[in-house]
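User: Hi! I have a protein structure encoded as tokens and I'd like to know what sequence might fold into it. I'm fairly new to this, so please keep things simple.
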């Protein structure tokens, strides 16, 4: 007689750097997808963000700093800053369809994140001056993103933001933007790998520093 098949529970969550991230197969994500369809690639957590978390873990962050996550998508790096460093975090994205996913992740991680629908170029110096740290994972993937991301870095540093970190797996638009930033504003690009709870590789453009 054939043995009854064992039911194996599908793992639909990932836990790393103290936060929980849901996979696309999770029922809560599938439910959201019926109503909200992100259309500028904000449809999952991108790997570069793990490298931002790893870098911030080794660098450290003063408790209670104010963080802007630009092109936040589901908000992984911002949620990490809120959870680990008690940071006040705003997640900015051009696509409002990402916010239900960000809010779900904020809820399951027990943090609060302010959301703001806007493109990078709409940010005013006065708004940027409220932040100590600006972070962005995988936000410079098309040629037309080079200029707005460069301007975001320039405006941030001219507004008194202490540090800007932009991460990317190494696409040409990112490297071109980073070259221009280093030449005109300063900073450096570091190659960063994580191979622990998650595996990820990215280049980190790091401009400025925090006390
Ligand atoms: C590849 S996803 C990365 C999402 C998230 N940072 C992560 O690491 O999982 C890029 C995000 O940037 C947003 N985005 C693209 N262009 C933008 C712009 N000009 N202004 C603001 N957000 C933008 C997209 O809507 C998307 O959520």
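Assistant: Happy to help. Inverse folding works backwards from shape to sequence: for each of the 211 positions I chose a residue that suits the local structure. Here it is:
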């Amino acid at each position: 007689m054939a043995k009854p098949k064992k039911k194996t529970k599908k793992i639909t969550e990932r836990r790393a750097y103290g936060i929980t991230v849901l996979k696309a197969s999770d029922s809560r994500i599938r439910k959201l997808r019926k109503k909200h369809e992100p259309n500028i690639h904000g449809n999952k957590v991108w790997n570069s963000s793990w490298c931002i978390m790893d870098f911030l873990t080794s660098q450290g962050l003063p408790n209670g700093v104010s963080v802007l996550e630009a092109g936040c998508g589901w908000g992984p790096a911002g949620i990490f800053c809120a959870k680990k460093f008690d940071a006040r975090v705003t997640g900015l994205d051009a696509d409002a369809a990402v916010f239900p996913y960000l809010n779900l992740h904020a809820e399951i991680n027990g943090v609060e994140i302010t959301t703001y629908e806007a493109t990078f170029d709409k940010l005013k110096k006065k708004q940027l001056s409220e932040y100590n740290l600006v972070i962005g994972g995988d936000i410079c993937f098309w040629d037309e993103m080079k200029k707005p991301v460069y301007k975001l870095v320039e405006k941030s540093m001219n507004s008194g933001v202490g540090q800007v970190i932009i991460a990317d797996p190494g696409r040409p638009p990112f490297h071109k933007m980073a070259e221009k930033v280093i030449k005109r504003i300063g900073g450096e690009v570091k190659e960063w790998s994580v191979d622990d709870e998650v595996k990820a590789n990215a280049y980190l453009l790091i401009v400025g520093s925090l006390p």
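A useful reference point when you look it over: The first helix runs from residue 27 to 33. Feel free to ask if any position seems puzzling.
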